[in-house]
Amino acid sequence: MASMICDLPSKILSTIAFNIPLYYMANLRKESDHVVIYLLFAFSSTLTMSMIFRTIGQLTRSIAEALTPTALFVIGLVVYTGFVIPIRNMQGWLRWINYINPLAYSYEALVANEFHHRNFECANLIPTGPAYANVTPEQQTCSIAGAEAGSSLVSGDLYVAQSYGYLYSHVWR
């Protein structure tokens, strides 16, 4: 416990020093509430992974013994976060990894937070082409998940919900 408390200032500083530039370089939303949520989940993920690494370290006798299970555990967590393999494509017998994965909850919260209340202009309306020159916008739709017929805008909330199953109501789970 004392080691964790002593590491807290350095974890806070490293979270701020790394994630603030990353956030703005990625051109994410500039509103303060979105930045605070991002930093909160980045910090909580840092603490969670630190505790997982400490637990694995306590179960082994040396650093060399800890490296193999740590590497395998991290690969499993990253692959089953929902980015590498979308949740709908996970095999049923390995889907449980996503349920116990703390990074999956942070990832879902960050994606839902970023897309919440955003509308994106559709790049490709269908049907399109020379034969459809007289088609009105109400007769066209966007080819992206979450699009509604007759609208050239795609709701970020609908897109994330239909593509990945992520909901903004899950941010604080």
Helical run tally: 6
**Whole-Å distance between the termini?**
26 Å
Low-confidence stretches: none
Query: Gyration radius, to the nearest Å?
Result: 21 Å
The H-and-E topology, N to C, reads as HHHHHEEEEH
Largest sheet: 2 strands, antiparallel
- Counting structural domains, the number is 2
% residues in beta strands:
5-15%
Shape: elongated
Mean pLDDT: 91
Please provide a written account of the structure.
By secondary structure, the protein is mostly helical. The protein folds into two domains: 1-111; 116-173, no CATH class. The chain contains six helices and four strands. It has helices at 2-25, 32-59, 63-79, 96-100, 102-115, 156-164, and strands at 119-121, 125-126, 141-142, 153-155. It has a two-stranded antiparallel ribbon with strand order 1-4. A two-stranded antiparallel ribbon has the order 2-3. Helix 5 runs antiparallel to helix 6 (156-164). The longest helix is centred in the first third of the chain and has 28 residues, at 32-59. It is elongated. It starts with a helix and ends in a 9-residue tail after the last helix.
Short description:
With 173 residues, the protein is mostly helical. It has helices spanning 2-25, 32-59, 63-79, 96-100, 102-115, 156-164; strands at 119-121, 125-126, 141-142, 153-155.
Q: Helices, strands, pairings?
A:
Layout: H1 2-25, H2 32-59, H3 63-79, H4 96-100, H5 102-115, E1 119-121, E2 125-126, E3 141-142, E4 153-155, H6 156-164
Antiparallel strand pairs: 1-4, 2-3
Helix pairs in contact: 1-2, 2-3, 2-5, 5-6
